[in-house]
Amino acid sequence: MRSLPLIVLTLAGCIGCSSNIPASTTAPSSSSITVEAAAPGPVPKTEAAHTIFMAGDSTMANKQVSDWPETGWGVPFAIFFNADYTVDNHAMNGRSTRTFISEGRWQAIADQLNAGDYVFIQFGHNDESPTKVDRYTTPEQYKANLTRFVREVRAKKAEPILLSPITRRNFDAAGKIQETHVEYSPLSRQVAQAEKVVFIDLDSITRAHFQAEGDAGSRLRFMHIPPNTHPNYPKGVSDNTHLNELGAREVAQLVLAELKRIQHPLAQQLRSPDPKHLELIYTAPKN
To answer: Is 133 strand, coil or helix?
Structure first.
């Protein structure tokens, strides 16, 4: 009987888990119960009127527990909206527009699209890497793939939203973040202009944001972990491409801020705050 409460707690904790990373338990014995934690994933499918799909790479994607605290900005973004909208995040680590298509990931979105849905499309990190021949996409094909995405979304009477890739955290000796998407970010803008779709220049927006944080402050938003401090990274990690939980939340908030700035309809579809949170206020830190 002493094992029963543990089983109940495990099942309760699984509510909201990603469907592809389930919590699981072994059959209880008289000596132990083995419990595997589940990663946070997309908001479970409900009877929402519309779906916000997300297509992109690791900087947007859901993560396995083994990759924590690496977090794509699509994870916190998924809880921003009211019950009329559910977020279905198809972004995946290491994917370019080319491999997203060849692996059938784009078709999985296209097959589910309905009128009134939205698709956030953010690629570039992997497309622009000629040394990674398994994923590299030429500039011409990158533009063609983005154009295909936009047109196929519109053919279903849904709305595409194009985003340039988020910045990498590459500071020079003078303390300035370098622009590392010099060729591919402008290409995403060109497609947006040609197809007359909403464009969020997340490259410029995040670069300005992390520049303001500075070298030390921005380090706390990316995957920088000293050795022997996190079980997933025993030797530590210094990664200026992938976000941690804090960085992902800030980028998701930057996307939301841009939607509000351009007065996009989705900015009017946010979740209602808990009434007790309306009593709270923000106090800015003193310099």
So the answer is: coil
3-state helix, strand, coil in the chain (%, to 5): 35, 15, 50
CB neighbour list of residue 69: distance below 8 Å, 6 or more residues apart = 223, 225, 230, 232, 244, 245
Q: Domain coordinates of the chain in residue numbers?
A: 1-38, 41-279
- What is the reported pLDDT for 48? 82
Over the stretch 226-279, which tens digit does the pLDDT of each residue have?
999 999 999 999 999 999 999 999 999 999 999 999 999 999 999 999 999 999
Backbone φ and ψ of 241, nearest 5°: -110, -40
E strand map for the chain: 24-25, 35-36, 50-56, 85-89, 118-122, 159-163, 198-200, 222-225, 237-243
- 160 contacts 188 by C-beta, under 8 angstroms: no
Q: What is the mean pLDDT of the chain?
A: 87
Instruction: List, as own/partner pairs, every contact residues 103-109 make where C-beta atoms lie below 8 angstroms and the sequence separation is at least 24, other chains included.
Output: 105/55, 106/55, 106/149, 106/152, 109/53, 109/55
What tens digit of pLDDT does each residue of 89-148 get? 999 999 999 999 999 999 999 999 999 999 999 999 999 999 999 999 999 999 999 999
| Whole-number CA gyration radius for the chain | 20
Question: Structure tokens of 104?
Answer: 């059938």
Within a 10 A sphere around the Cβ of 268, how many other Cβ atoms? 10
CATH superfamily of 41-279: SGNH hydrolase (3.40.50.1110)
